[in-house]
Amino acid sequence: MNFAGVPIVLIVVSLVLVALGAWVLLRQQWLLQWLKGTAGLLMLGGAVYLSILALNLYSYNALRPDVPLATVSFRALGPQNYVATVALPGGDSHDYALRGDLWQLDTRVLHWKGLLALVGAGPGYQLDRIQGRYLALEDQRSREATAHEIHSPPVVFDIWRGASEGSLLLSGTTLSAAFLPMADGAIFEVVFQRGRLEGRPLNSSAEAAMLQ
């Protein structure tokens, strides 16, 4: 067979495959069972995905203006060395060692898209990270910086990461409060206001630190 004959053979084989494929697909009983099986698998897969999504969403809280997301208090261990206690609205609290002069709290935020957004489903949040920072640029460059991941571990997959990279149901963003001073005995609350996070002093120690 010469080179020009190969395309003819391929065309003949393709026509045979088309005829065989059409004959198999036209066997209605087999086609119906295949469609039923595919639909069933898709439904089971959708149910598993939605269940995992729901489990992950339980670690998020409704984001509402002027409602505290967390209360952060400080205890000094030494110069530029603190223990920050992050207390959640539900009553849980955790301690984190921070070095520096300032602190910042980051929050993961999920916004619903599509139909859920149209019916008024509001955003949710989860605390993401707390970190310390030095006032002096030289200290920031040369001394140990501290940061702690405080978000809940995801179940199977991280819905916030998926939402921030592109999702049909959700969009993900990060909100960060401005850096605020650390001081022994200072207590702050973090609230969502005017589309951003704000840290508010709750006692005289915090108010005095903000005036320095």
Strand content: 25-35%
- Helical residue percent band: 25-40%
How many distinct helices?
6
Count of the domains: 2
Unreliable spans: none
Oligomer classification: single chain
End-to-end Cα distance? 92 Å
Classification by helices and strands = alpha+beta
Task: Give the ordered list of helices and strands.
Answer: HHEEEEEHEHEHEEEEH
List the helices and strands and how they pair.
Blueprint: H1 5-25, H2 28-57, E1 61-62, E2 68-78, E3 81-87, E4 93-99, E5 102-112, H3 115-118, E6 124-133, H4 137-142, E7 147-149, H5 159-165, E8 170-176, E9 180-181, E10 187-193, E11 196-201, H6 204-211
Antiparallel strand pairs: 1-6, 2-3, 2-10, 3-4, 5-6, 5-8, 5-9, 6-7, 10-11
Description:
The chain starts with a helix and ends with a helix. It contains six helices and eleven strands. By secondary structure, it is an alpha+beta fold. It is elongated, with a radius of gyration of 28 Å. The model has no long low-confidence stretch (mean pLDDT 86). The chain folds into two domains: 5-57; 62-211, no CATH class. The longest helix is centred in the N-terminal third of the chain and has 30 residues, at 28-57. Strands 1, 5, 6, 7, 8 and 9 form a six-stranded antiparallel sheet that branches. Strands 4-3-2-10-11 form a five-stranded antiparallel sheet. It has helices at residues 5-25, 28-57, 115-118, 137-142, 159-165, 204-211, and strands at residues 61-62, 68-78, 81-87, 93-99, 102-112, 124-133, 147-149, 170-176, 180-181, 187-193, 196-201. A hairpin with a 5-residue loop joins β3 and β4.
